[in-house]
């Protein structure tokens, strides 16, 4: 067997490694897991010695704070959790600095909030900081700023933050370290017959076949579902994502080395789950619009306007004539959701079109070769008929035959504290009309997350969320000029900065045939 020190990709890679609280402190005693942390630090330093750039996304501030204060539980009070995070973060970064200093590896602390991600200027400043740190040979250690970040503490872990960081640094790999070897079809701790899943190329399909209720400790707030969400975001950014046991972190070396081979034989590699990156990932700005921006309202458009937006020459800009309704209150330049109003009879006319010019653009990133393997679990699993595929990589139209739906297998889309969970478009999902044969009580919102049921006054309409954009006028102004010709904007508003009411539109769902 080759020495891992001599196994490496022939090219320099950018690698993001995410550690959960269970890999940092003991769940019962809250003592730092020094042996495991030392192994992780040593692995990162070996990766650096091989010429790779490494970013570490680390949870654990609250767990370390509990130990310092002699507390057994973190409690339910938000202010208590924030205080514990403030106490623990300084000690956590000091612990990392001490360990990395033994191997003369400089580190830097980077604390981010959702506000930093959603504000374009602050986001780009953070990107520039990452770029400079990596060029200096520094290992950035990233964490959510729990002291001021309310939602992170309440709902989720750093899985999605690691996916966002991966996009910011143009990573080649994202390693989600956890306390099981890989993704399984069921909870391996309870079901000895649970089967490992080695390769995934479609998240929504695999959700129907695997257990996501396998992880999460009394200290950590994430789980396998948040890792699937993070993997989906990273895949869309062109990042290969790997779920790996933190006790076997040295397995990173043969996994990245295998990318140099023409065909990857997963059975010869250590146990892990590899999520294949998209061949045509979203460009940086489009990815940020879809997954980084918080929306303040909705612009409802007609089918004709949607068809126009899917064409390359539209430039992602919307005219007032195509707007039929404005929802919410927002100011000019704020982000809005784009929702298309469809007649129920027209839903059957939707057909996915791969590689829509407005959905994806070639990435300028350099990547290692992706595997040609396809997971047999990740095909033909979408329920319903005439579904709208939100993934540009899968372009087959579903069979009109309705597959039976098992409620226990329906995925939950509300487990993550991530930006993805705040906006349904942040996860690529297959959207299908609810089959008539399915009882409304069994129809999970996860099957139709972006389809809003029509009101009794509008029984003929369905509303499908298809993208995001930035408003050029405020909500009141767009409401006044909706449905109007562009030539009338100045007459109605008294001014006309632009004929487009929304621009920088990024679509998530494929075009109408």
List keywords for this structure.
alpha/beta, Carbamate kinase, Archaeosine Trna-guanine Transglycosylase, Chain: A, domain 4, 2 domains, seven-stranded mixed beta sheet, globular, glutamate 5-kinase activity, ATP-binding
Structure commentary:
It is a single chain. This protein is an alpha/beta fold. The protein has 2 domains: 12-277, Carbamate kinase (3-Layer(aba) Sandwich); 285-378 and 387-399 and 412-435 and 442-507, Archaeosine Trna-guanine Transglycosylase, Chain: A, domain 4, CATH 2.30.130. It has 15 helices and 19 strands. It has helices at residues 34-49, 61-69, 78-101, 114-118, 120-135, 150-155, 159-168, 203-207, 224-236, 252-257, 284-291, 303-309, 419-422, 475-481, 489-493; strands at 14-19, 53-58, 107-112, 139-144, 173-178, 183-184, 196-197, 199-200, 240-245, 273-275, 298-301, 318-319, 323-327, 335-343, 388-389, 430-431, 451-452, 461-471, 500-507. The strands form 4 sheets. It has an 8-stranded mixed beta sheet with strand order 3-4-2-1-5-9-10-8, with helices on both faces. Strands 11, 12, 13, 14, 17, 18 and 19 form a 7-stranded mixed beta sheet that branches. Residues 1-9, 215-222 and 351-455 have low confidence and may be disordered.
């Amino acid at each position: 067997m080759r020495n891992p020190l001599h196994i490496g990709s022939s090219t320099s890679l950018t690698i993001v490694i995410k550690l959960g609280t269970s890999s940092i402190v003991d769940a019962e005693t809250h003592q730092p897991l020094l042996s495991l942390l030392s192994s992780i630090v040593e692995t990162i330093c070996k990766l650096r010695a091989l010429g790779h750039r490494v970013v570490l996304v680390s949870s654990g501030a609250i767990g370390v704070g509990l130990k310092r204060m002699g507390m057994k539980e973190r409690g339910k009070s938000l202010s208590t959790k924030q205080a514990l995070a403030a106490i623990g973060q300084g000690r956590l970064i000091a612990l990392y600095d001490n360990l990395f200093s033994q191997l003369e590896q400089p580190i830097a602390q980077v604390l981010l909030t959702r506000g930093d991600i959603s504000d374009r200027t602050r986001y780009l400043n953070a990107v520039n900081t990452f770029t400079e740190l990596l060029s200096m040979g520094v290992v950035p250690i990233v964490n959510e700023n729990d002291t001021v970040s309310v939602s992170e503490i309440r709902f989720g872990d750093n899985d999605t933050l690691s996916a966002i960081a991966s996009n910011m640094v143009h990573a080649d790999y994202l390693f989600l370290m956890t306390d099981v070897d890989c993704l399984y079809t069921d909870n391996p701790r309870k079901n000895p017959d649970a089967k490992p899943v080695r390769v995934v190329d479609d998240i929504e399909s695999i959700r129907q076949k695997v257990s996501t209720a396998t992880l999460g400790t009394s200290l950590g707030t994430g789980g396998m579902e948040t890792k699937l969400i993070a993997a989906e975001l990273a895949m869309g950014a062109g990042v290969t994502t790997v779920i790996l046991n933190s006790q076997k972190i040295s397995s990173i070396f043969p996994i990245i080395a295998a990318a140099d081979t023409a065909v990857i034989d997963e059975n010869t590699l250590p146990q892990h789950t590899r999520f294949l990156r998209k061949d045509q990932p979203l460009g940086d700005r489009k990815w940020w619009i879809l997954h980084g921006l918080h929306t303040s309202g909705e612009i409802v458009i007609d089918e004709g306007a949607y068809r126009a937006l899917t064409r390359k020459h539209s430039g992602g800009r919307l005219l007032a004539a195509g707007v039929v309704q404005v929802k919410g209150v927002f100011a000019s330049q704020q982000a809005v959701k784009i929702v298309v109003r469809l007649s129920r009879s027209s839903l059957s006319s939707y057909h996915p079109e791969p590689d829509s010019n407005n959905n994806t653009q070639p990435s300028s990133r350099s990547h290692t070769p992706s595997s040609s393997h396809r997971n047999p679990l990740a095909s033909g699993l979408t329920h319903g008929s005439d579904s709208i595929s939100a993934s540009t990589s899968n372009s087959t139209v579903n069979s009109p035959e309705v597959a039976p739906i098992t409620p226990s297998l329906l995925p939950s889309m509300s487990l993550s504290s991530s930006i993805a969970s705040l906006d349904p478009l942040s996860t690529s999902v297959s959207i299908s009309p609810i089959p008539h044969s399915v009882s409304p009580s069994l129809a999970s919102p996860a099957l139709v997350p972006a389809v809003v049921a029509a009101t009794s006054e509008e029984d003929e309409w369905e509303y499908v969320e298809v993208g995001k954009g930035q408003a050029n006028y405020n909500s009141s102004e767009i409401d006044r000029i909706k449905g109007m010709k562009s030539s009338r904007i100045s007459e109605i508003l008294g001014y006309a900065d632009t004929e487009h009411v929304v621009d920088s539109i990024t679509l998530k769902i494929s075009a109408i045939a």
